[in-house]
């Protein structure tokens, strides 16, 4: 079976998007499928039309944007359509598999219909909602409504829709798409790639000013929807009852300066360590410093609908975690069994849940084991990617593939 994946961007760029993609492709290879991979112009400037990265071969799309305002997306889709048609004629796939955003789906739909190749569209998030959080779009504004309209247009015309979680599936079905045309391929992790949490590096802990402290931690990108402002707001209440507790924030992003200013304003700057971005091969050392990971996402469409990867990675390592009860977290975390949930957007509830969790030390080993077991039994890439097989095999009979003509 030949699958041509159409991607926004890929490794060597690092993001949750590229990590999910690489995991899917490697698991499909293990199933014996032949995969091909084309990235859109959003990969950025490229030096060659093709590139090998970590054992995966990528076709790239060269693109020089025009100068007329407002035409960037149309030019991007035009370049991707031309490149996709050329690659499809070369590799003759059985299925075109376009991944979010809709800027990839529309070219795939056009090329698929032109060449008689069935099209799968994988929705990883509604990018109009992410744009609202990033401040590049206004909820229900013109750009928001246009993007949402294009998504619905594609849903009605592709041969099958896949998505990453139940929240997104429900939203897609609510737009009039038949339930049997939408399949959840959930986020997962390679459990074997994560070792159970090790002992903290005493030298690193002292270097960061965390010696003799219990550590609340977050490791990831500092976006507004992650709710790290709530963690800082809750901290004075936590500190009043647990003065040995500190916060470790590892990473960076658009909210970094604002969070640092908030810590200074709250008078907690000395108890909050901003470690910055660290090399990928050093991340484990920082995880090992954390006693309790905190994921305080705000409640909004994006977080209610979409499941994140970070809690799964934490559970795979046998970590303890506290998270807001947004829909994306509720699909992953069983309160009191694999972690603890608190009412979203309530810093007082966050503080109380953290304090209660820290007081439940006799239960910690059972919760760690339950989280790891959940990942091993329900959220491995082998289990998730196997769900594609029935979709692909059914679609191979829908239309005659290009290479059979």
Automatic annotation (TrEMBL):
It comes from Thioalkalivibrio versutus. Keywords: Transferase. NCBIfam families: stp3. This is Glycosyl transferase family 1. The lineage of its organism: Bacteria, Pseudomonadati, Pseudomonadota, Gammaproteobacteria, Chromatiales. PANTHER family: SULFOQUINOVOSYL TRANSFERASE SQD2. The keyword Cell inner membrane does not apply. CDD domains: GT4_WbuB-like. Residues 16-187 form the Glycosyltransferase subfamily 4-like N-terminal domain. GO terms for molecular function: hexosyltransferase activity. Pfam families: Glyco_trans_1_4 (PF13692), Glyco_trans_4_4 (PF13579). It comes from the Bacteria. InterPro entries: Glyco_trans_4-like_N, Glycosyltransferase_grp1, PEP-CTERM/XrtA_GlycosylTrfase.
